[in-house]
Amino acid sequence: MSDVSSTKSPSDVLAGYAIDKNSAATPKKKTNDLGQDAFLQLMITQMKNQDPLAPQSNSEFVAQLAQFSSVQGLEKLNTSFNGFSSSFQSNQALQASSLVGRSVSVEGANSILSPDGIISGTITVPASTSEVKMNVYDSKGVLAAQIPIGSAEKGDMNFRFDGESMELNGKLLDWSAKTPLTPGAYRFEVLSTQDGKSQQLATSLSANVNSVTVGADGKLVLNLAGYGAMDISKVKQFN
């Protein structure tokens, strides 16, 4: 009968993976992870050196095989996930490049009227009202235009403004500016009358995308004309 005490222990097997400090070969980077090759060799060594009088049971062997399969599965999953993450970030960068030069709508009151351009936007009406009007101020805060809209039902109203006329929900308003507004930055103020009191309504206005930054976490940050850096999650609509 062979001497069981003279056989190698599992710790001796793992020690074989350590780097000899006196070796002339290029040292390998040590890791605390137990790879599938080391796991398999450890299991085989354990089986070879088991006590003949008390051999490993079938259930224990099956359990170790299951653990080995789990290690393989986790390594494959990690490799697949890294590949997916890299592909996702590449796709994000490709999408980001297509946004430059486009117009998006964000919640706010500021927008820029470009030459031969149009400012589009949405007015949110929380409740039916008998009177809605829009005030347009230039970059110096001077009232440049006052547009009577009239009554409105609860919901969103979409408009398009070119500095001289305005279209509301696809219909041209019976209004035109006495003097067409020149290209530049403008602030929009929409007021409604509720129970005899005036209140300001929320608006979303168009803004041009000057550039896009893709962060290390994969998030897109848009550099919008008139607003600066803004997370893409705050975009209400891509025009």
TrEMBL record:
Entries under Pfam families matching the protein: FlgD, FlgD_ig, FLgD_tudor
Domain FlgD/Vpr Ig-like stretches: 117-193
Keywords: Bacterial flagellum biogenesis
Entries under Gene3D superfamilies matching the protein: 2.30.30.910, 2.60.40.4070
Recorded superkingdom: Bacteria
Domain FlgD Tudor-like: start-end pairs: 91-236
Family statement drawn from the similarity comment of this UniProt entry: Belongs to the FlgD family.
Function according to Swiss-Prot or TrEMBL: Required for flagellar hook formation. May act as a scaffolding protein.
Protein name as annotated: Basal-body rod modification protein FlgD
